[in-house]
Design goal:
The protein is α+β, with helices and mostly antiparallel strands. It contains ten helices and nine strands. Keywords: Activator, Cytoplasm, DNA-binding, Transcription, Transcription regulation.
């Protein structure tokens, strides 16, 4: 009997910050190659067994079981299975505005396209889950399963890479730490957070993150935090909140300390500033 309900084709929303393209697995033949060629999306490969070679325009990388490599859009690549011990590969292709940020957090780039993951860890498991979801095109839950599996895979990959040795002097890592510090301030300024709290959240020493922050931003993190709070307080001055309520709202439980910092920043005490600026 024919169903009265029309079949609906499901697609992954192109507005997502990460968009799944395709995934797969192949046991390659001896000497099997791809390229040279380019992709218009990102593609991550994971090697289950065997060996092979991955090449960019600048370098050649022998790879084996437990290793991975990735391609960025618009760059020339080729890869080749070993003649005597050809690799078995899995891959996932994707794109999206958030991808460069996640790759930067993982320390991956065109110049640094390699990673290593445990063969039986969560990275491989989440990759397999994504492949299985992609093999079931008639499932109404397929778009959600693919998206969830892709995020899980990238999270597992990020964890696996960051669990390995990291060069703290690498510029991408420094930029990532500074970005995380700025994000920490913007999301935690409204309570009595300290720079020590920020350093602890980032897993860094206070001295190290303070040095990175000042070099990148131009002022010490404590000064930036104070200025950020005062700017938020100045915005709140235009509303009906009392000075005490504004003080608490920007992370100060002591109204006197808040008033002192506000005057130091803007040259006027909060009440005087509100009066001069025409606030409530």
């Amino acid at each position: 009997m024919q169903s009265r309900h029309p079949r609906i084709k499901h697609t992954v929303n192109s507005c997502q910050d990460i968009k799944f393209y395709y995934a797969g697995t192949e046991a390659c033949e001896s000497g099997q190659t791809w390229g040279p060629g380019v992709k218009d999306h990102y593609k991550i490969f994971y090697i289950h067994s065997g060996r092979g070679t991955f090449r960019t325009a600048a370098a050649e990388y022998p790879r084996s079981a437990g290793d991975g490599f990735f391609l960025v859009p618009g760059e020339l690549y080729d890869y080749e299975a070993d003649a005597h011990d050809p690799w078995k590969l899995s891959w996932v292709a994707f794109n999206g505005e958030a991808v460069p940020l996640y790759l930067e957090q993982a320390g991956l780039s065109y110049e640094s396209p390699l990673f290593t993951c445990p063969p039986d860890g969560p990275t491989r498991q989440s990759l397999q889950a994504m492949i299985e979801a992609d093999r079931n095109p008639d499932s109404f839950s397929r778009p959600l399963r693919l998206t969830a599996a892709l995020y899980t895979f990238l999270a597992a990959l990020l964890d696996a890479i960051q669990a390995g040795p990291v060069d703290p002097n690498r510029s991408s890592i420094k930029s990532y730490y500074v970005a995380q510090a700025l994000d920490f301030i913007e999301t935690n300024y409204s309570w009595s957070v300290s720079i020590e709290d920020m350093a602890h959240a980032l897993g860094l020493s206070r001295k190290y993150i303070a040095s990175l922050f000042k070099t990148a931003v131009g002022v010490p993190p404590q000064q930036y935090l104070c200025r950020y709070r005062m700017e938020k307080a100045r915005e709140l001055m235009q509303g009906s909140l009392s000075i005490k309520e504004i003080s608490y709202s920007v992370g100060y439980s002591d109204q006197l300390i808040f008033s002192r910092m506000f005057k130091k920043t803007f040259g006027y005490a909060p009440k005087e500033y509100r009066r001069k600026s025409g606030g409530v």
